[in-house]
């Protein structure tokens, strides 16, 4: 169904000059916003900036056609660079190609197996923490381009903010960030202003590179080196892409195919490995530029971004190199502030939220900002959420004791799920020394979920045997009965 909605909207864009112009201009701004970040990440990964830029073109174009989330920008990303960097420093740049291709194969397998559906288990507070941490990381990544710079940079910074924030009140047909980039670049070139520009971040040689060469043998030794890195690339890239897709779903109120995004990202990374040479995933900052500032909603915007980036890298590389870094940094700072979920940080909101939810969001933010790795932050948040859930559920077990009129038997009616966290509490609910010779444990309202629960029931029976009591367990559903019969007596 989401595919039909996407196709229909794309056709509407192609038929409407106004919508087509909006999507294309959003793509231009997005392409320009990609350049400094992609170049910075190439340094982290230990590769040539041109490699990351060409890989970004391949990724952006292939995911525009194959991805499951329209208007989401995919390129060579920092989270993936953080994973690849250590392998390159230890073993050399030649292992990137096989690692990236293997990561793509993993992602295709994850998509076809439907593992993307696991995203539904990420709590809302973790998602909010992810968004807030991302805004913080994007903002502070731009600070060095402004802080400590000369007064000219600060003047251009203030002018950029004024254009981006105030121009929409006067002119809405052209994205204000695009106007800011053109105006500030023209001023810097026209007056010969000595400010850091894109060309200072890395060499901008014109032309296209050839296909990536395989520089290492395909054998078991190579596999042992690349598979941990490839699996990390696959998981980190997939997690960041699916989280970004969910965020765009919420912003645009439109659905996306997480399954298609998973295998599409795998195919895109394989293509980028062979032509470009490095992997990537969704770029949430640039996606926010595209969706929030550019108001893009279709695949046309990301196709335009890929083509503009290709044009800039090849034919217009000299012009691209002259774009002042401060204008791009200012735009990304505005994006960072728009990315933050300010509602979640209001005192009134924090006061209404349970302390556990606030703590969960804080853990996700701290872990992400501390490590600079979104996957670590989200993973830490999910683990903390599981611990909180287990503690909460562990105390919902109740066992109601009912003594028979003749005092010859007693029935315990247990309510609540029995699993590793709650089964320990169950043991404490019984009056072992005071009960009569016959004990009935009714589990009609208490499903048995795991081996720990079976072990707890065995322990209860063993304790009653000390007092020569006969224990009968009744009310088990089919699954619980099978599990109990299979595991009882093994512990």
- Using DSSP, what is the number of strands? 6
- The helix/strand class is alpha/beta
Helix percent band: 55-70%
Widest beta sheet: strand line-up = 3-4-5-6
3D shape: elongated
Give the distance, in angstroms, between the N- and C-terminal Cα atoms. 50 Å
**Poorly predicted runs of 5 or more residues:** none
Task: Tell me what the structure shows.
By secondary structure, the protein is an alpha/beta fold. It has 21 helices and 6 strands. It has helices at 2-15, 17-45, 49-66, 78-91, 96-112, 124-142, 151-166, 176-190, 220-252, 258-274, 284-293, 299-313, 317-320, 325-339, 342-345, 347-352, 355-371, 374-394, 423-426, 451-465, 478-487, and strands at residues 74-75, 281-282, 398-403, 409-415, 438-445, 470-474. Helix 19 (423-426) links the parallel strand 4 (409-415) and strand 5. Helix 2 (17-45) packs across helix 3 (49-66), helix 6 (124-142) runs antiparallel to helix 14 (325-339) and helix 7 crosses helix 14 (325-339). The mean pLDDT is 85.
């Amino acid at each position: 169904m989401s595919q039909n909605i996407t196709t229909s909207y794309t056709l509407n864009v192609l038929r409407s000059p106004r919508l087509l112009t909006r999507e294309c201009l959003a793509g231009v701004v997005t392409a320009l916003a990609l350049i400094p970040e992609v170049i910075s990440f190439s340094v982290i990964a230990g590769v040539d900036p041109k490699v990351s830029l060409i890989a970004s073109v391949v990724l952006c174009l292939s995911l525009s056609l194959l991805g499951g989330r329209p208007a989401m920008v995919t390129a060579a990303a920092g989270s993936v660079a953080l994973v690849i960097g250590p392998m390159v420093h230890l073993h050399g740049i030649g292992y990137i190609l096989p690692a990236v291709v293997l990561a793509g194969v993993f992602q295709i397998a994850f998509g076809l197996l439907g593992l993307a559906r696991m995203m539904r288990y990420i709590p809302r507070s973790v998602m909010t923490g992810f968004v807030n941490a991302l805004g913080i990381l994007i903002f502070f990544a731009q600070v060095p381009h402004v802080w400590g710079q000369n007064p000219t940079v600060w003047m251009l910074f203030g002018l950029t903010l004024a254009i981006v924030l105030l121009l929409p009140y006067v002119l809405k047909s052209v994205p204000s960030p695009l106007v800011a980039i053109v105006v500030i670049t023209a001023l810097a070139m026209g007056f010969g202003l000595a400010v850091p520009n894109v060309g200072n971040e890395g060499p901008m040689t014109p032309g296209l590179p050839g296909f990536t060469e395989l520089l290492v043998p395909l054998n078991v030794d190579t596999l042992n080196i690349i598979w941990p890195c490839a699996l990390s690339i696959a998981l980190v890239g997939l997690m960041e892409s699916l989280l970004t897709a969910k965020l765009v779903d919420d912003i645009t109120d439109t659905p996306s195919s997480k399954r298609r995004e998973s295998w599409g990202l795998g195919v895109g990374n394989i293509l980028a490995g062979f032509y470009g040479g490095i992997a990537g995933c969704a770029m949430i900052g640039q996606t926010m530029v595209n969706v929030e500032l550019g108001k893009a909603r279709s695949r046309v915007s990301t196709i335009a971004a890929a083509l503009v980036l290709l044009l800039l890298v090849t034919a217009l590389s000299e012009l691209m190199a002259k774009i002042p870094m401060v204008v791009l940094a200012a735009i990304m700072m505005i994006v960072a502030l728009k990315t933050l979920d300010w509602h979640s940080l209001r005192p009134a909101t924090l006061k209404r939220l349970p302390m556990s939810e606030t703590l969960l969001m804080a853990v996700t933010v701290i872990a992400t900002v501390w490590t600079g790795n979104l996957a670590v932050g989200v993973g830490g948040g999910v683990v903390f959420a599981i611990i909180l859930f287990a503690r909460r559920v562990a105390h919902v077990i109740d066992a109601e004791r009912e003594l028979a009129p003749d005092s010859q038997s007693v029935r315990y009616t247990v309510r609540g799920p029995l699993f590793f966290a709650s089964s320990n509490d169950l043991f404490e609910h019984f009056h072992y020394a005071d009960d009569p010779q016959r004990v009935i444990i009714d589990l009609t309202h208490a499903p048995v979920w795991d081996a720990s629960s079976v072990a707890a029931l065995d322990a209860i029976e063993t304790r009653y045997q000390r007092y020569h009591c006969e224990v009968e367990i009744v009310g088990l559903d089919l699954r619980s009965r099978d599990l109990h019969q299979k595991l009882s007596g093994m512990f």
